[in-house]
Specification:
Distance between the termini: 81 Å
Number of domains: 6
Number of strands: 29
Oligomer: single chain
Number of helices: 26
Radius of gyration: 58 Å
Shape: elongated
Helix content: 10-25%
């Protein structure tokens, strides 16, 4: 399907309406006035007519409705609109002219004999001889209503203050102006008689129908031209990166890549075994308190599980001893019994099948775990033969036996006594114990279903740490992984860095916790914890405080509670809300962040203004704008580590209390500069002593570390940003979810200048140049002559020297022509033709109609009777043109004559006597008469008033005589064609 580009052109409607507009050069001579009319959609109508390019009517719609009234175009207190919206291109398509190349005419009309769009129809009853007066009838109106409306219309026509443009509408854009209207009763029928401004064309006859309507607005004529637009070839392009989009998906920072052999080729330690055991977990780690048997043992025997662990521990120690012995020998075999690989696989098989209680006893640390030889990870378990281990085992067995005796749900209680007492049934009893332990593992998961409602903030209590993230996200809160997972897998899941022996660790960070072994020193008190557990501990805190966080979402105290969940105090990470700064306060730096510490401090009640209760439109009270005491609150919130914080605090403590930023910026003298010179100089003076490192070094001479090295990092932005590695970056992404949507938040490392710095752009300066270029070119020399038609010398020479008078503001003056210019330019005296008679409104149809009536007062008296009261007759006349006579006569006035005829502007009939006619010079500038001689006479010429053969009275001997308006003043208004 072809696409078209439409071009709309505003055209002069005179080409199809027949009404010409006044030329621009003549508009000043005609009185102008504005006509204020409204177009009412309910009562007025809009006609649309489609014309071809040569102004031939193609189609008409007498009641066009596809237009739009503008919202702001309604008349004040009146029905109708002063502006309506037209779309000629769309209208042409709706009418079936999609390809354009048509002209659209819009007529805005109002039926005078109807208050709605259903117009009253008239038909022609009678037409007078000159076809300017019509008598009309209608069957749709009562006589009383018809008379009432016609009387009002006539009154409006005679009222000079009311402009009326009445038309007879024969449809198809055939409109004819009405200059007068009245009613007339003929043979008992009330009819409407109208006077037209011009003769009705012959195509209309009696019984033709019409409507009497008023022109609401000037017709609009538009040209609609269409141009075929080819289909645009769209080449797909890849969009550029959108750096401003917020990524919803969690983005992890991966650790170093390892293959399977590299991942598990570390020295065999308890950390290695613990990591292997974690990888073999098939489900979420439940929060189980292993210090009490009732929390995880329900069907199985506690005593049997402890003895089973001791058996596994003794096997591991035996395998480890064999590995050490083989490693100290020269044996290098593998894959067979007696090799290190063989025993390592045996240890691996045992550790991989540890249950949750075995993991607690073997890898845990505490009074309820198996005794260890050290207090830091990786823990080393004491052999069961050790005194402390033997005492721990006996004490734990006693507690387990006591628990089993009181546990009525023990599965072995279902075995009959005679089976238990038979030693041959030991394998069966062991099988029942294994089944019981299997059901215990299922029981603890069923028991943990209700733990989701236990929002304990401790890591190993309440909801499982492996399920807390899903629980939080079920409430619509998205959690993210921080930057603490880039270390090796041991620190992530076990809580310590690997020890390779030969590798030198240059950078290492270990998460510690004070919830384990309370030793005598700080190093014993702070124990490493897995960074995975660190993140889950924060998530447990968020889950515990989630009701409060959701209730205070978007407030300062809600954000502070979230920061407390991450363990960051207020003096390290501040919440800065911009705006709300007291303008009259000391040290005013503009709309910076306020000193408020809570959301409630943003709510201010100021009763010192001029707020008036009740009606403010009072004679006894005034309303005055309240003073603006605070800067506008902004939507910007800073929750990050500001690199300029130290400088700003130093500026606050050093700058003068009378400082006002308005005194330093906005100086018009700096408009061409790229900086505020005075303010920059002041900031350099203030900050000159803010980084006095020598004083700091003097105070810390006795520090147990190299303070100068620390200052190297603190001085540079690189060192400042490096500090962020020790904070959980997921905090800043989570914060954005607890801020209003319109807030613009700055998180993380906030790199910005100090408060005395102000950016400035130089005012754009413009210059104007007006170049002038001169150029010259050589042209040929041109000469000319009068062509030889007249010789300017000799006895037969001709000359154009003459004198004539011209009209000037001082009157007529004499001008002498002493050159021979007329011979070359052809401007001879008498060759000037008058192209206009000076009448600028000859073609204005309204000008002739608006001529004042010529009134004659005639008084008639009958002298044979006593004088009666006078009878006054009013006669009205209008100018039709100048009256002329033409006669055909013989020489010396005898009867011998030929024939004469008017041939322009219209051809008349031949006459052998006389012609009497009227000519309107406003319509035609001249008229032409022609004399025709016959075989019985000879034409002598055209003469003025006295028909004599005298040459002095003769006008011309040509058979054609052309009469101009100014000719009448010379020759009169009677002309004689004389024949011999």
């Amino acid at each position: 399907m072809a696409n078209f580009k439409y071009t709309i052109t505003d055209l002069d409607s005179a080409a199809v309406t027949g009404q010409t507009s006044i030329p621009e050069s003549q508009k000043e001579l005609v009185e102008q006035f504005a006509i204020n009319q409204l177009f009412a959609k309910e009562s007025n109508k809009l006609e649309i007519h489609v014309y071809s390019l040569d102004n031939q009517l193609l189609k008409s719609d007498q009641n066009f409705t596809k237009y739009t009234q503008l919202l702001n175009s309604a008349g004040a207190g009146k029905d109708g609109a002063s502006n309506i919206y037209l779309d000629p291109a769309l209208d042409a398509k709706d009418l079936g002219y999609e390809r354009g190349d048509v002209r659209l005419l819009y007529n805005f009309l109002d039926n005078l004999y109807s208050e709605a769009k259903i117009a009253s129809k008239f038909f022609i009853k009678e037409i007078n001889s000159d076809r300017t007066e019509l008598r009309l009838l209608t069957f749709e109106l009562e006589d009383e209503r018809l008379s009432e409306i016609t009387k009002e219309l006539k009154k409006n026509l005679l009222d000079n203050s009311y402009f009326s443009d009445y038309k007879l509408n024969f449809q198809d854009n055939k409109l004819y102006s009405v200059i007068n209207i009245d009613t007339l009763t003929v043979d008992g029928e009330l009819s409407v008689v109208v006077k037209l401004g011009e003769a009705l064309p012959d195509e209309f006859a009696v019984n033709d129908t019409l409507y009497i309507e008023n022109v609401v607005s000037d017709a609009r004529y538009f040209g609609v031209d269409a141009e075929v637009v080819g289909d645009e070839i769209k080449i797909p392009k890849l969009k550029g990166p959108n750096f401003g989009i917020e990524l919803e998906a969690d983005k992890n920072n991966p650790s170093e890549f390892f293959n399977y052999n590299e991942l598990f080729s570390y020295p065999v330690t308890n950390s290695f075994y613990e990591l292997r055991s974690l990888y073999n977990e098939s489900g979420a780690q439940l929060s189980i308190d292993h210090t009490k048997f009732e929390n995880f043992i329900h069907f199985s025997s506690a005593e049997e599980r402890i003895r089973n662990f001791k058996y596994k521990l003794d096997l591991i120690h035996s395998y480890e001893s064999s590995i050490v012995a083989i490693a100290s020998s020269s044996y290098s075999g593998s894959g067979v019994s007696g090799s290190t690989e063989y025993y390592e696989n045996l240890v691996k098989g045992l550790v991989d099948n540890f249950d949750h209680y075995d993991n607690f006893l073997y890898f845990g640390s505490g009074s309820k775990s198996w005794p260890k030889t050290n207090t830091a990870k990786p823990y080393i378990n004491r052999p069961s033969s050790h005194t402390s281990a033997s005492a721990f085992f006996n004490e734990l067995i006693t507690s387990a036996s006591s628990y089993d005796n009181t546990n009525f749900d023990l599965l072995t209680n279902t075995i009959p006594r005679f089976i238990k007492e038979d030693s041959d049934n030991e394998p069966y009893i062991m099988f029942i114990e294994m089944i019981a332990q299997h059901f215990d593992n299922l029981w603890i998961y069923f028991r943990a279903v209700s733990d989701k409602y236990d929002t304990d903030n401790r890591l190993d209590f309440g909801l499982s740490k492996d399920l807390v993230k899903e629980a939080i996200e079920s409430f619509g809160i998205k959690l993210f992984t921080g930057n603490q997972n880039t270390d090796n897998v041991f620190s992530q899941f076990v809580g310590e860095a690997i020890q390779t022996g030969s590798e030198v660790i240059t950078s290492m960070s270990i998460a510690t916790s004070a919830s384990f072994n309370s030793g005598s020193t700080a190093k014993e008190h702070l124990q490493p914890v897995p960074k995975n557990d660190y993140q889950k501990e924060i998530q447990k805190r968020i889950y515990h405080n989630l009701p409060y966080l959701m209730k205070t979402k978007g407030t300062e105290r809600g954000l502070r509670a979230l920061l407390n969940c991450y363990g960051i105090p207020d003096n390290i990470l501040r919440i800065k809300q911009h705006g709300g700064k007291i303008i009259e306060s000391t040290r005013f730096f503009g709309p910076e962040y306020s000193t408020t510490t809570g959301s409630l401090e943003k709510i201010r009640l100021d009763n010192t203004g001029s707020n008036v209760s009740g009606s403010t439109l009072s004679l006894y009270s005034s309303v005055v704008d309240k003073d603006k005491k605070y800067t506008d609150d902004l939507h910007t919130v800073d929750i990050g580590f500001d690199i300029s914080r130290g400088s700003n605090e130093f500026i606050d403590a050093t700058i003068s209390s009378s400082f006002d930023i308005d005194d330093w910026i906005g100086d018009p003298r700096d408009r061409r500069d790229t900086k505020y010179s005075r303010l920059d100089k002041e900031s350099r003076l203030v900050l000159a002593g803010s980084w006095n490192w020598e004083d700091i070094l003097d105070e810390w001479q006795n520090a147990d570390f190299d303070w100068d090295d620390v200052l190297v990092y603190a001085r540079s932005p690189k060192g400042f940003v490096r500090l962020l590695n020790y904070f959980d970056s997921s905090l800043f992404r989570t914060i954005k979810q607890f801020l209003p949507a319109r807030a613009k938040v700055n998180t993380g490392a906030v790199i910005q200048s100090h408060k005395l710095h102000r950016s400035k752009a130089a005012q754009v300066s413009a210059s104007l140049t007006q170049p002038e270029y001169n150029v010259s070119m050589s042209i040929g020399s041109i000469t000319g002559s009068q062509g030889g038609w007249a010789s300017s010398s000799g006895s037969y020479g001709y000359t154009t020297n003459h004198s004539h008078s011209i009209v000037t503001p001082l009157g007529k003056v004499q001008k002498n022509m002493t050159t021979e210019d007329p011979m070359y330019n052809g401007e001879f005296s008498g060759s000037l033709l008058i192209s206009t008679d000076g009448e600028v409104g000859s073609n204005n149809p309204f000008l002739n109609l608006a001529q004042p009536n010529v009134t004659f007062d005639l008084t008639m008296f009958n002298l044979s009777l006593p004088l009666p009261p006078a009878c006054v007759i009013f006669l009205s006349a209008s100018m039709q043109g100048n009256f002329y006579n033409a006669f055909s006569t013989g020489s010396e006035g005898d009867a011998i004559s030929g024939s004469i005829q008017k041939i322009y502007p219209s051809s008349g009939s031949l006459s052998v006597g006389s012609l009497h006619f009227t000519h309107d010079f406003d319509a035609f500038e001249f008229f032409t008469l022609e004399a025709k001689e016959s075989y019985t006479n000879t034409f002598l010429g055209w003469y003025k008033q006295f028909p004599t053969g005298s040459v002095s009275n003769r006008i011309t001997t040509n058979t054609e005589l052309t009469i101009y308006y100014e000719t009448e003043a010379t020759h009169g208004n009677s002309y004689y064609a004389v024949f011999d």
